[in-house]
Amino acid sequence: MMKKRIVLTFPPELVDQPIIYRLVKDYDLVPNILRAQVTPKEEGKMVLELEGGKEGINKGLKYLEDIKIDVQPLAKDIKLDEQECTSCGACIAVCSPKALSMNKESWKLEFDRDRCLLCGLCVPACPLGVIQVEFE
Amino acid sequence: MPKTFAEINEKIRKGEAVVVTAEEVIDLVREKGEKRVAEEVDVVTTATFGPMCSSGALLNFGHSDPPIKMQKVWLNDVPAYAGLAAVDVYIGATELSETRGMEYGGAQVIEDLISGKKVKLRATSYGTDCYPRKEFESYITLDSINQAILFNPRNAYQNYSVATNSSDRTIYTYMGILLPNFGNANYCNCSQLSPLINDPLYRTIGVGTRIFLGGAQGYIAWEGTQHNPLQKRDEKTKIPVAPAGTLCLIGNLKEMSRDFLRAAIFHKYGITLTVGVGIPIPLLDEEMAHFVSISDEEIYTTILDYSAPKREKPNLGRVSYKELRKGEIEIKKKRVPTAPLSSLYKAREIAQVLKEWIKKGKFFLQEPIQRLPVDEKFKPLDIRR
User: Fold this and answer.
1) What pLDDT is recorded for position A36?
2) Is B196 on the interface with A (CB under 8 A)?
3) Looking at beta carbons, which residues of chain B come within 8 Å of A89?
4) To probe the interface with A, which of B344, B349, B350, B352 has the most A CB atoms within 10 Å?
5) Which of B180, B265, B267 minimises the CB distance to A42?
6) How do residues B220-273 score in pLDDT, each as one tens digit?
7) CB–CB of B186/A93 below 8 Å?
């Protein structure tokens, strides 16, 4: 038995399908939903922990990719290089838990590690490439 | 009593000029009024630091022996335009590497050069009697080449629209990542500190104005491309409420610093150059004191829906920079979080540096030798047969 944490992005047309059910029934996996934002007819996001046999997990992941769900590994840590950061603010646009925010006095970027859910969306959003991610 | 550029420069020479930033002047005017500020303050420094795609550098490599008339040129595998004299090229910021794609481009070549790094130069040619060589490969640095001129056809937009996304998918744009269903709204202007916002009618900023560019002293070469002075303006402030005037900037790349010139990658969109620009505004009279005192609550911009793949994007209304800077605005009855793309933090640093240069007599004002156009139309491109 093993565990794997992943971030799923669903296209709108897949949001109303019983994907978690298929992971349980067809691949004998135990899914634990850590965070989800799924609304009918909208793009959805889910942070998921899968527990099961190695083969089941690999086949389950292939099933998700085959039906065009974007699967990314969940980050272990997010690192912001404060020396290189120019505090432009492009990263806060995608940070829904507001771990990244602008200080309204100095307009310097602030990173509150306690609020970070490790979704990793800020990494591609940073135009200067100064946010790095470490995977499990 | 109105002041002249020459009088202000004389004060700078004597170390007596009173210089404040475009943010500091707002409180001064609230306290003392426009008339007194026009008399007491000589120069207001404005600045911006943001992604500006229409940027690039003109380089001259010097001649090899035997010489080559470079016809195709690559710098670290990024194509540079060589349709000029034998060893002159223009490397554009947004050009992509032929081997690394969107990971590396012209902006990174420029950043590597100012960082002192070696850059691989590869050139091919058809060969002529006077330029017999057909291939050349070597390494250059900023010191090893002749001229390196930053020449940006369009920088420092006078205002810019807010970008949001009404569709059900994430979209990847030059205005950053836009989340579905109005998930965010991105803006890109230093508003009350921004150069052309503080001189909305181009009274003191024009062709020939000496400026701060990328950490060095540069100049306004011309109006910028897509300069659109006829854009709709706020009746009271005269400030445009959408993208309007632009500037074409020039300066010596060899004197610039990575602190104020940085390559940027907009995910799934492309590469651009983040440029730091600072422009001094002389307080010639009360009208200029009035213009520089206008603050974020009176500076408006337009919200556009970037999910429409069309030239005319749906207009979702107007919003002030005061609202945008609070971090949340309302679009179609929904609370939408906002994010800036230009760095007010860095722009403030630039405005302070320029202020110190002027106070210490290291930077003098240059009166424009020609005004920027005030009645030029911005034309669309339509298919003609």
Assistant:
1) 79
2) no
3) 339-341, 343
4) B344
5) B180
6) 999 999 999 999 999 999 999 999 999 999 999 999 999 999 999 999 999 999
7) yes
Which DSSP string corresponds to B2-14? ---HHHHHHHHHT
Which pLDDT value is given to residue B116?
A: 98
The predicted pLDDT at position A106 comes to 97
Q: What's the average model confidence in pLDDT over B357-369?
A: 98
Q: Would you state the structure tokens that stand for residue B104, as one six-digit string? A: 């590396």
Positions of B annotated as catalytic residues are: 130
Chain A residues in contact with B340 by the CB 8 A cut-off are 88-89, 102
Do the strands B19-21 and B43-51 form a parallel or antiparallel pair, or are they unpaired?
parallel
How many helices and strands, by DSSP H and E, does chain A display?
3, 8
Shortest Cα distance, chain A CAs vs residue B136, angstroms? 32
- Distant-in-sequence contacts of A100-108, Cβ < 8 A, 24+ apart: A101/B327, A102/B327, A102/B340, A104/B325, A104/B327, A106/B345, A107/B343, A107/B344, A107/B345, A107/B348, A108/B345
DSSP A113: G
Determine what percent of chain B is predicted with pLDDT higher than 90: 99
CA distance B346 to chain A (A): 7
Nearest to B248 by CA among B40, B52, B15: B52
Query: Which residues in chain B have their CB less than 8 angstroms from residue A42's CB?
Result: 168, 180-181
What ipTM score was computed for the predicted complex, to two decimals? 0.93
Residue in this structure with the two tokens 């420069």, named with its chain if needed? B9
